[in-house]
Amino acid sequence: MSKDCQFCGTSVTLPEKGALVINRKNVHMDGEPRDLAIDYQDNDTVVFQYSSIDNLVATLELLYQKNTSNFWLHILNLESSQSFPISIHHLYERLKRPNLASIIHDGDFTSHLQPIVDMSTNEVYGYESLLRTTEQSVNPGELFSYAQRSGLQSMLDQKARRSAVKAKSEFLTKGQKIFINFLPSTIYVPEFCLKHTFQIVKEFQIDPSDLVFEVVETEKISDVDHLKRILDTYKASGMKVALDDVGSGYSTIEMLSLLKPDYLKVDRSYIQNCHENKENQEFLYQVMERADLLGIQVLAEGIETLEEWTWLNQLGVDYGQGYFIGRPKAVPEKEFSLP
């Protein structure tokens, strides 16, 4: 069974037979733990051997009953004496849902592309890459939630980027942008962690300026300086960056001046009924004013009606995206025309 390194997307192997090595201070056991097969212990360490994956799951469940807090342990391969660290919560999640872990490890998904249109010309400007699993019973939201619980975000993020860049090489022409979501929490040291992305770009011979990496705002970024280093690393490599789901938190002049994104993607909640909702209109006026001041292009996502499209077009929004324009498809739509 394969697992990934905690801090990148590289693969390591969980042995079918092995041992859990745990710092004794992390394990709280009342009395003699007869239901836990301890193979070795001293003042600092407790070791539990397991003879199968089922046995390992049973041991973890017993540990869960006695310990409510998360802690790190080591998985030890008794044959090679190699070990790797993992949190008990991450290990337990992976073992309980091995089908989802396999989907992520094997990259058993593809990219569907949703068109983004230049609102001044009605021409397709680019596409957003949206992950879709080939296993129809697993939706992307479930997969991303599981990746967070199991510590597989980095692996999923890397493989999703590869799928998106591959789709760009297969379906889009030079000059057409592809917008790719990314999770800042999976990037620890930008200069190191993004090497994988830069290698993919070279492999598929993509012009870096055709790639737009957009921050997933739902992570509620707290370390703005770290985010700035990530965006600066992308831009230094010739790529573009965008802030996704922009709401009041990212709309201040100070924040936009600091991060200097190439694009703002306005959250769909401000687009819905914008042709008649005065509060949404006021927010959009402010966004357009600030974006124009800083030279940032504005993309409205979630456009679903002709009325919304018409009002946004009159406002001067640069690009539009949504079901009114086109749905995500494995083979993307090449043109857009008003009904």
Summarize the structure.
The chain is an alpha/beta fold. The protein is 37% helix and 24% strand.
Task: Tag the structure with descriptive keywords.
TIM Barrel, single chain, alpha/beta, EAL_dom, 339 residues, eight-stranded mixed beta barrel, cyclic-guanylate-specific phosphodiesterase activity, 37% helix, five-stranded antiparallel β-sheet, EAL_sf, EAL domain-containing protein, 15 strands, 2 domains, Cyclic-di-GMP_PDE-like
Radius of gyration: 24 Å
Q: Shape, please?
A: elongated
For the termini, the CA-CA separation is 52 Å
Order of helices and strands: EEEEEHEEHHEEHHEHHEHEHEHHEHE
Beta-strand level of the residues, as a percent range?
A: 15-25%
Determine the CATH topology of the largest domain.
TIM Barrel
| SS-based class | alpha/beta
Mean pLDDT: 87
Parts with pLDDT < 50 across at least 5 consecutive residues: 1-7
Summed up, the domain count is: 2
Structure summary, number of beta strands: 15
**What is the number of helical segments per DSSP (H or I, 4+ residues)?**
12
How do the strands line up in the largest sheet? 8-9-10-11-12-13-14-15
Structure description:
This protein has helices at residues 53-66, 88-96, 98-106, 140-150, 153-171, 190-193, 195-203, 224-236, 253-259, 268-271, 278-294, 306-315; strands spanning 2-4, 11-13, 18-23, 38-41, 45-50, 72-76, 83-87, 109-118, 123-133, 177-182, 211-215, 240-246, 263-266, 297-301, 319-321. With 339 residues, it is of the alpha/beta class. An eight-stranded mixed β-barrel has the order 8-9-10-11-12-13-14-15. The longest helix is centred in the middle third of the chain and has 19 residues, at 153-171. Helix 8 links the parallel strand 11 (211-215) and strand 12 (240-246). Pfam families: EAL (PF00563).
